[in-house]
Automatic annotation (TrEMBL):
<feature type="compositionally biased region" description="Low complexity">
    <location>
        <begin position="145"/>
        <end position="160"/>
    </location>
</feature>
<dbReference type="InterPro" id="IPR052094">
    <property type="entry name" value="Pre-mRNA-splicing_ERAD"/>
</dbReference>
<feature type="compositionally biased region" description="Basic and acidic residues">
    <location>
        <begin position="125"/>
        <end position="144"/>
    </location>
</feature>
<dbReference type="Pfam" id="PF00226">
    <property type="entry name" value="DnaJ"/>
</dbReference>
<feature type="region of interest" description="Disordered">
    <location>
        <begin position="107"/>
        <end position="166"/>
    </location>
</feature>
<feature type="domain" description="J">
    <location>
        <begin position="12"/>
        <end position="76"/>
    </location>
</feature>
<keyword id="KW-0143">Chaperone</keyword>
<keyword id="KW-0539">Nucleus</keyword>
<dbReference type="InterPro" id="IPR036869">
    <property type="entry name" value="J_dom_sf"/>
</dbReference>
<feature type="region of interest" description="Disordered">
    <location>
        <begin position="323"/>
        <end position="344"/>
    </location>
</feature>
<protein>
    <recommendedName>
        <fullName>J domain-containing protein</fullName>
    </recommendedName>
</protein>
<dbReference type="InterPro" id="IPR001623">
    <property type="entry name" value="DnaJ_domain"/>
</dbReference>
<keyword id="KW-0963">Cytoplasm</keyword>
<feature type="compositionally biased region" description="Basic and acidic residues">
    <location>
        <begin position="324"/>
        <end position="341"/>
    </location>
</feature>
């Protein structure tokens, strides 16, 4: 048989009467009398007062009964001890959580510091790169100025001697469409010879699907008229085939063109080729009179195009600068990919460690709570 009824278990007699656990029977009775004056049904007819009077009566009987009071004191002592253990456990939990949050904040701060340092390095590299570009631009301009200084002066209008002509002055860069019918260099050379006369060398780039093709054509020494006619035809609508474009390999119009325009007089001498292979010059340059090339300079030997510069792309210094820029960008891309992979791995590892720590902390707290409940 239970020592306390359900109704007695539901109340705290010490709290109801407002006395300490160490209060004597006299103190308990005095407190009861004081409260009963306020809530006795004869003095206070309200329902709340009657319920209150009933509860303080139960509290008085519990505290005046030695067995019930001893049982109640033991239960209260256990409750206080359990509350103290729970408070201690909560303190430990708070310390563990605070420590975990502190370490997470430190890790985030380290990541922010690394990111800031990396950004500072990137900004510094951008400044250095801007400086490199300025230096390269200055070098390119110096190169162009030096090339212009080395170029032979334009002949005077009254001079009867043609200007010096190099192999590059008789070389054209042709741009062929993706669907060009010229598959090989010999095919292109045969067509050029049949239409424009002797050709020294023809280089044809390898075809790529959907891409335009480039070719370099060096006309034979003396075949200036054929070179000029090929240039005019492929820039003025009478191309070898639709889509073909022509440019001077040297980038600018050779000096001999202007000289020939001011000194030419014999259309038949414009191209020193056999009559059987001389094409019609319906698209010849608009000279006031046809140029005469009777005293064309003789070249000792044609240049070897196996080692000649590539006239189909930017030449000389521009090509070197472009290659250096492409190599630098490739190195930067590789470094950035390596840094990204390293950051991803570090973040994933740190996340797994934090999850494991949280699981271990939760399991430890659960075991401690179970241990406390079992006591």
């Amino acid at each position: 048989m239970a020592l306390l009824s359900d109704e007695e278990k539901a109340i705290d007699p010490y709290t109801l009467l407002g006395v300490e656990v160490t209060a004597t029977d006299k103190v308990v009775q005095k407190a009861y009398r004081k409260l009963s004056l306020k809530c006795h049904p004869d003095k206070n007819p309200g329902e709340d007062a009657a319920a209150m009077f009933h509860q303080i009566t139960l509290a008085l009987n519990m505290l005046l009964d030695p067995a019930k009071r001893k049982f109640l004191d033991t239960k209260l002592e256990q409750s206080r001890a359990q509350a103290a253990r729970y408070a201690e456990l909560q303190g430990k939990r708070k310390v563990a959580v605070d420590d975990l949050l502190r370490r997470e904040e430190e890790a985030n701060k380290r990541r922010r510091d690394v990111a800031a340092a990396r950004q500072a390095a990137a900004d510094e590299e951008a400044v250095r790169e801007a400086g490199r570009r300025l230096v390269e631009e200055r070098q390119r301009k110096q190169h162009e100025a030096a090339a212009a200084a080395r170029a032979p002066p334009e002949p005077e209008a009254s001079s009867s001697t043609p200007p010096p002509i190099s192999e590059i002055d008789l070389t054209l860069r042709l741009q062929l469409p993706p669907d060009s019918s010229f598959d090989t260099a010999p095919e292109l050379e045969r067509t050029l010879v049949a239409k424009y006369g002797p050709v020294s060398h023809v280089l044809l780039r390898e075809a790529k699907p959907g891409k335009k093709r480039g070719a370099a054509v060096e006309f034979a020494p003396g075949n200036w008229g054929g070179c000029w006619a090929c240039y005019v035809d492929n820039t003025g609508g009478r191309a070898l085939e639709p889509g073909v474009k022509a440019k001077w390999a040297g980038g600018a119009e050779p000096a001999w063109v202007a000289w020939a325009a001011s000194h030419g007089s014999k259309p038949a001498a414009a191209r020193l080729v056999p009559a059987s292979s001389t094409p019609a010059f319906g698209s010849a340059p608009p000279f006031s009179s046809a140029p005469s090339f009777g005293s064309a300079p003789a070249f000792g030997s044609a240049p070897a195009f196996g080692s000649a510069p590539d006239f189909l792309s930017a030449g000389g210094l521009d090509t070197a600068l472009g290659q250096r820029e492409a190599e630098r960008r490739a190195r930067e891309a590789a470094k950035e990919a390596e840094r990204t992979a390293s950051d991803t791995f570090a973040s994933a590892t740190l996340l797994r460690m934090r999850q494991l720590e949280r699981q271990m902390l939760a399991e430890k707290i659960r075991l401690e709570e179970e241990e406390e409940e079992g006591k």
